[in-house]
Amino acid sequence: MHIAILSTSVRAGRNSHRVGLYFKKYVEKNEIATADLIDLQDYKFPIFEERLRFMIDPSPQIVDFATRIKNADGVVVITPEYNGGFPASLKNVIDLLSVEWKRKPTGIVTVSTGAFGGVLVYPSLIFSLWKKGVWVIPARYQVPHVQEAFDENGYPADITGTEKRTQTFLQELVWCMEAREKMNPPD
């Protein structure tokens, strides 16, 4: 099994990437799957004017990103809450892809510097993902006060509590990944 962990904030001083670092370490340390941390800040994508499937000559970066999502058995989307919504960088790549997202088991992790952990992001993000045919898992993972919950290197302040929540969340994702594999056997 292979999990893509999508770190979606491209802001300077971002805190949500800390959670991406943590998830990659956790998945690998516990041998849940192989993990690929995809950092949108590394890509510096422009605002796309067309979906990948209609691009005549997509850049190697676009093809690389699409391949990394397509090759994943499941995705963990880590998004901050910006003014009640998710970042434009995430909407940009949701809209870019089509078949790569189709029926892909995906868990949503929301973060905020405030007390609610990005709860306001869910309705709009889930709707955007559903429109692309993404299989959004029912488990939720919210990180309030992210700047205190994780250090810059992705280490949690409350190791025991964080690992317990992470295990439950990832068990749900892995169950969905295994179910998808059984429903769609390779040719």
- Care to count the β-strands? 5
- What is the name of the CATH class? Alpha Beta
Q: What fold name stands as the CATH topology? A: Rossmann fold
The end-to-end span amounts to: 17 Å
Protein name: FMN reductase
Pfam family, one: FMN_red
Organism: Adhaeribacter arboris
GO molecular function, one term: FMN binding
Name the descriptors:
alpha/beta, Rossmann fold, five-stranded parallel β-sheet, 7 helices, 5 strands, FMN binding, FMN_Rdtase-like_dom, NAD(P)H-dep_reductase
Provide structural commentary.
The protein is α/β, with parallel strands linked by helices and 187 residues long. The protein has one domain (2-183): Rossmann fold (3-Layer(aba) Sandwich), CATH 3.40.50. It is 41% helix and 19% strand. Strands 2-1-3-4-5 form a five-stranded parallel β-sheet, with helices on both faces. Helix 5 (122-131) links the parallel strand 4 and strand 5. The chain is globular and about 50 Å long. The model has no long low-confidence stretch (mean pLDDT 95).
What's the SSE blueprint?
Layout: E1 2-7, H1 16-29, E2 34-39, H2 40-43, H3 60-70, E3 74-80, H4 88-96, E4 105-111, H5 122-131, E5 135-143, H6 146-149, H7 159-183
Parallel strand pairs: 1-2, 1-3, 3-4, 4-5
